[in-house]
Amino acid sequence: MKILVPLKRVADPDNANKVKVAGTKLETTGLEWKPNPFDEYAVETALRLTENGAATKQRQGEVVVVSFGPKEVEATLRAALATGADRAIRVDVTDDKLDGDLVARALKAIVEKEKPDLVLCGKQAVDGDSNQVGQLIAEYLGWPQATFAGSIKSEGAPGKETALVVHREVDGGTINLKVTLPAVVSVDLRIVAPTSVKSVYTADGFKYPDGVRFAALMAIMAAKKKPLVEEKIETLAADTALKIEYLGFELPAARKAGVKVKDVAELVTRLKSEAKVL
Amino acid sequence: MLVSVPTTPATPATEALLRELPSDLYTVEPSELAEYGRDWTKVFEPKPSAVVFPRTAADVSRVLRLASQHRVAIVPSGGRTGLSGGAVARNGEIVLSLARMRAMGEVDTIGGTVRVEAGAVTEAVHQHVAPHGLTWPVDFASKGSSQVGGNISTNAGGVKVIRYGLTRQWVLGLEVALASGELLTLGGALEKDNTGLDLRQLFIGSEGTLGVITAATLKLAHLPAKLDVMLFGVADIPAVVRLFQATRKAPFTLAAYEFFTPACLARVQRHRSVRTPLAAEHGAYVLVELEGAREDELDAWFAQLFEDEIIEDGTRAQHTAQARDLWTLREGISESLSATGMPHKNDISIPVASLQPFVADLEQLLAARYQGWEICLFGHVGDGNLHVNVMKPDAMDKATFLAKTSELDQTMFPLVQKHHGSISAEHGIGLLKKPYLGFTRPPEQIALMRQMKKLLDPQGILNPGKIFDAQ
Q1: Fewest CB atoms within 10 A around its CB: which of A97, A201, B192, B436?
Q2: Closest Cα of chain B to A88: distance in Å?
Q3: How far is it, in rounded angstroms, from Cα A117 to Cα A181?
Q4: Number of C-beta neighbours around residue B80 at 10 A
Q5: Nearest to A209 among B276, B311, B319 (CB)
Q6: Range from A178-182, A271-275, B32-36 carrying the lowest mean pLDDT
Q7: Could you please report the per-residue DSSP string of A122-179?
């Protein structure tokens, strides 16, 4: 199976105190970056679907990672290559020239060229929390989609997988779907639990360690030699106009200091008279 | 709060003292007494009679003057993250907490200094100076609670000692209240001040027995531009030392060199949901942090380490969030050991060159006399600092365990002495190591320390019974 994984870098949430607003833009200089956690889960899922869990050095199929951004984004792509992805594509563009729709249209062009069996993405990026790209690609490609996957099992003969059984996380439970390939699947938090992903190569009952794998030192060194190509956004999308315009940003208002109450009686009085919740 | 504390009834002297203080300056609330009477050592029962929270140096001076007058013992108190019982009050003392004195002054970006009050939390100081590209390079797992005054009076160590040295190196000026209540200003923002005896150094590391630090002018370092964090799996302890030698020879600035055994990793995994970054288990793990290393040099170095069979496997943080994950494996150890069991802690310092023979001796001793005990070894090997943690077997009761470990200490410390080490590398002496001070300090030195104590605190009201007994 060939899997395409779109990957976005996001500002490390631990930077929260460094974020500054400059006019209608967020000031991003000096911020630390990390891969969007849900995209990291998508990479992990793609790796699990293309390997035997007991012999992870041997890739059964191909995993291609794609990211949009300036040259520095290559560090994020190299990190994914180090954990086991085979090739990487960087679409050269800056964040302020992108929205979910343009990303989806550019990815459609990449999919048409790469012809993967599966596009696997995180359910949303933790910076904008738009939760759009996966659904839009499926629509533009006319492929079946399964969003918020909490578990995935591939079906078919090794190398000729035909469908995925996906358990979708929804309010109050899971919806179980079977999607025929090619398809678009977006993953949720629980996809990296020990038995959430089962490929046709992995033995029944096999358990992965919980979470996303670290790259081995040897693999990190080898990843520097793996292919990473650059594409231009203009060649992928005829129309690069954005549908979403950001009018402004503001930081959350500082919270007021709390007060200590002497006893329950005072608490009740204040809840009634000040908070007016009783 | 439903915490019952066996409080020592306040003596008439203590009551007389408290009567002279405004009531919002102290508390006798049992839950507060339990909290402020102890540090991270859990072996001593806290029994303070009151906790005083001064707001200014003048308040501190007043409390000490009254304490001298009424002859009431005082335990100076910071973030209480110490591991030797230096901040424990178990004899009805008054705890003098600096927690309210946490103001931080403007950063002098030209001189690279900042004046802060003693109660400023270490991590808050880091955040205060970071926007100027500066840091106070005193760094350890408990930085979110520990306070500058405590860091200084214990001359705290930590994970960056190999790069920056101990706290002592990063203190330019000190403001101290003596037992009499007299306030001293020792040095200021001067790098150089060669004018007779450097009194400031006396108070650094004195564990609150000579005076109470009220404020300090800190020397700051530039924040490193680029840090690389990696974790190596090696075969055994000798390999840890071999890797250290290889790291020292490499063309990098070493920011940290930390080691831990699989037993520590297993405890961290039991306590927190962390994933082992390396595929297989190894005899020992080493976390290395490098400053400003060039990519091509790093690659060549890694290749050489594999070729020389110094490392078995390894990983390298791909971004800062991952670097934090790797650091969690090391910094989470102390907390995880206490959360999943009862460790008996030792903090030993050995000349790096003698580390290998010392560990061999130690392993032999443990195998011969304490077979089957779980030993969690970790430490800042780069500066010869080894944390030897013996875990209480689940079936053994606490009293038997304490007796057994005290017997172990008696047999282990002669080994430390034999290899010219120290029985307390960075945790200080406090109450916990007091019986063993003689293994590192000869009698004539302890006698000299007693004379200094007598000179500065003639009535013995400051943290009495810590480091050594009065007589």
Answers
A1: B192
A2: 16
A3: 6
A4: 24
A5: B276
A6: A271-275
A7: ES--TTT----HHHHHHHHHT--EEEEEEEEEEEEETTEEEEEEEEEEETTEEEEEEE
- In terms of Cβ atoms closer than 10 Å to its own Cβ (0-12, 13-18, 19+), residue B227 is middle
Residue A150 tokens read as 């909490």
Strand partners, A198: A153
Contacts with B, A 184-213, CB within 8 Å: 209-213
- The ipTM (two decimal places) reads 0.80
Asked if A31 reaches chain B (Cβ–Cβ under 8 Å), the answer is no
Structure tokens that stand for B86 in this block:
């230096």
Element (H, E) at B327: helix B320-331
Chain A touched by B278 (CB under 8 Å):
yes
Q: Quick one: tokens of B12?
A: 């008439």
Please tell me if residue B322 touches chain A, with a CB cutoff of 8 Å.
Answer: yes
Residue of A190, A214, A263, A264 to mutate for B, most B C-beta atoms under 10 A: A214
Task: Report if residue A45 sits inside a domain.
Answer: yes
Contact with chain A for residue B302, Cβ under 8 A = yes
Round to whole Å and give the CA distance between B67 and B75.
Answer: 11
Q: Tell me: the pLDDT tens digits for B274-294?
A: 888 998 899 999 999 999 888
Per DSSP, which regions of B92-243 are E strands?
94-97, 113-117, 134-135, 171-177, 183-186, 212-219, 221-222, 227-234
Residues of A whose CB is below 8 A from B313: 216-217
Q: How many domains does chain A have?
A: 1
Measured between CB atoms, does A57 come within 8 Å of chain B? no
By C-alpha distance, the chain B residue nearest A217 is: B315
Residue A261 is assigned to a structural domain of this protein: yes
The b-or-e profile of B134-173 (16+ CB within 10 A means b, else e) is: bbbbbbbbbbeebbbbbbbbbbbbbbbbbbbebbeebbbb
Q: Encode pLDDT of B406-426 as tens digits.
A: 888 999 999 999 999 999 998
Range of the domain at A234: 2-273
Domains of chain B, CATH where assigned: 12-100 (3.30.43.10), 113-222 (3.30.465.10), 227-334 (3.30.70.2190), 341-425 (3.30.70.2740)
The answer to whether B262 and B231 are in contact (CB under 8 A) is no
Residue B67's CB is within 10 A of a number of other CB atoms, namely 25
Q: How far apart are CA B96 and CA B17, in angstroms?
A: 13
Name residue A214's amino acid.
F
What is the C-alpha to C-alpha distance for residues B219 and B136, in angstroms, rounded to an integer? 7
Question: B315 and A217 in contact by Cβ < 8 A?
Answer: yes
CB < 8 Å to B329, chain A:
none
Residue type, B36: Y
Chain A nearest-CA residue for B297 = A221
CATH number at residue A180: 3.40.50.620
In a domain? residue A278: no
All residues of chain A having their beta carbon less than 8 Å from the beta carbon of residue B302 are 217, 221
What pTM does this model have?
Answer: 0.83
- Upper half-sphere CA count for residue B28 (Cβ side, 13 Å): 14
Residues A69-73: contacts with CB under 8 Å, at least 24 apart: A69/A9, A69/A93, A69/A94, A69/A95, A70/A94, A72/A33, A73/A9
* pLDDT higher than 80, residue A24: no
**Cis before A182? omega within 30:** yes
